[in-house]
Design goal:
Pfam families: Na_H_Exchanger (PF00999)
Distance between the termini: 55 Å
Protein name: Sodium:proton antiporter
Subcellular location: Cell membrane
Radius of gyration: 21 Å
Mean pLDDT: 87
Family: Belongs to the monovalent cation:proton antiporter 1 (CPA1) transporter (TC 2.A.36) family.
Structural class: mainly alpha
Largest sheet: none
Order of helices and strands: HHHHHHHHHHHHHHHHHH
InterPro entries: Cation/H_exchanger_CPA1 (IPR018422), Cation/H_exchanger_TM (IPR006153)
Strand content: under 5%
Length: about 425
């Protein structure tokens, strides 16, 4: 049993070593390279265990990874820092300009995708005579429908798209996970038999979590803004930003509000008004540099961790078919969830050239979906949902992440019918 310090040291050492190997020898985008190397290392260890059962390396590494609660590490650890770091760099004026599009994609789009995925998976289960209740299909639809803000913001660093489309993608990803988590909470309560929740109760929960989280982020962000405005001392201002993230997320959790939405709002406030009116050039350089480093380091650890999770998930080989169903199903749901709102909204708020294909293919899923799947209570549906989630995350991060730049370049010169320049 490793101590917490030994565990962190081991994980950071593996991450640093794999990042160096990828940079020097492989040359893939860092986070995709780390995920694939983590996955490859996991598969090699599994093969060693099968071929040489007497060896202990597989059991030792599995025990180390098994000590880490992935859900807690992501949802109550890394996520707050990653979302704040991402929100710091989002232009608030552009976000306001694209608010209708972002709002619809982050709410209606998530609901459409959830419904299509749940219905499709349930239908496949009926055809294959699987004991998969529709309520558990809704759970999978809820956790896989939102695009992952960490993965999407990472992907955007590799893609050259028009500003309006970049704002749509980043804004949707930053806000739709809050909606997705609320829908996931409701779906799990219904599936696990924790009591009936009607439409009114569900809407109340959404308003309290999302709306309350946004108001909390404004309040704490404003307090931090005023504190920064009264001094010019970059170490203290960096400390204030750290306190803002951890304090806001902790209070949101305690009050039953959306921690992700609260830190996103706080990050937008500090990254825009704070940078413009409360920071000197020196402070700006240190604050933004600090959060850029935090973002890069935690991203690297998270994507490696996703790859290494194979060691403790214990996939049943009989569930291999789920990947063949889940990946195209989620892609089809994403296509409808993007194309339908865009077709309606384009009359009032034009989208960038090629927006629909890029939004579809850039809808990457990541650690949040895996974390939510791992948090599910034991049930016959849990192994199926875990396998489907992992398959979709791997496909979207690796395949879509590596090719979305090519899709964006191709679409930039060929506007879809009925769309305008943005």
């Amino acid at each position: 049993m490793l101590s917490l310090f030994e565990l962190m040291a081991s994980l950071l050492t593996i991450t640093a070593g794999f990042a160096w190997i990828n940079h020097r020898l492989i040359g893939l985008p860092e986070n995709i390279g780390l995920l694939l190397m983590g996955l490859g290392a996991s598969l090699i260890l599994i093969a060693i265990e099968l071929l040489f059962p007497a060896t202990t390396i597989y059991r030792s590494v599995s025990a180390m990874i098994g000590q880490i609660d992935f859900y807690e590490a992501v949802m109550h650890g890394m996520l707050a820092f990653l979302l704040f770091a991402g929100a710091l760099h989002v232009d608030l004026d552009r976000l306001r300009w694209r608010a209708p599009a972002i709002g619809v994609l982050a709410t209606v789009g998530v609901l459409i995708s959830m419904a299509i995925v749940a219905t499709g998976l349930w239908g496949a289960g009926q055809v294959l005579s699987l004991p998969l209740a529709f309520s558990w299909c809704l759970v999978f639809g809820a956790l896989i429908a939102p695009t992952d803000p960490v993965a999407v913001l990472t992907t955007l660093k590799m893609v050259d798209v028009p500003q309006s489309l970049e704002t749509d993608m980043s804004g949707e990803a930053l806000f739709n996970d809050g909606v997705g988590v609320v829908l996931f909470t409701i779906a799990v309560q219904l599936a696990a038999g924790g009591g009936d929740m009607g439409l009114i109760e569900g809407l109340d929960l959404l308003v309290v979590e999302a709306g309350g989280g946004a108001l909390l982020g404004v309040a704490t962000g404003y307090v931090a803004f005023v504190a920064m405005q009264t001094i010019d001392d970059y170490p203290i201002e960096v400390m204030i930003s750290l306190a803002l993230v951890t304090g806001t997320y902790a209070v949101a959790d305690r009050l039953g509000m959306s921690g992700p939405i609260s830190v996103v709002v706080a990050g937008l406030l500090i990254g825009n008004h704070g940078a413009a009116h409360a920071m000197s050039d020196t402070t700006k350089r240190y604050v933004f540099g600090f959060w850029t480093l935090i973002d890069e380091i935690l991203n690297a650890v998270l994507f490696l961790f996703i790859g290494l999770e194979v060691l403790v998930l214990n996939f049943d080989p009989d569930f291999g078919w789920i990947a063949l169903i889940a990946v195209p199903l989620v892609l089809a749901a994403r296509a409808v969830a993007v194309a339908a709102p865009v077709a309606v909204l384009d009359r009032w708020q034009p989208f960038a050239r090629g927006a629909v294909p890029v939004l579809i293919w850039g809808g990457v899923r990541g650690g949040i979906s895996v974390a939510l799947a791992l948090s599910l209570p034991d049930s016959p549906a849990r192994p199926l949902i875990l396998a489907a989630t992992y398959a979709v995350v791997l496909f979207t991060v690796v395949v879509q992440g590596l090719t979305v730049a090519r899709v964006a370049r191709r679409m930039a010169g060929r506007p879809p019918a009925g769309q305008h320049h943005g």
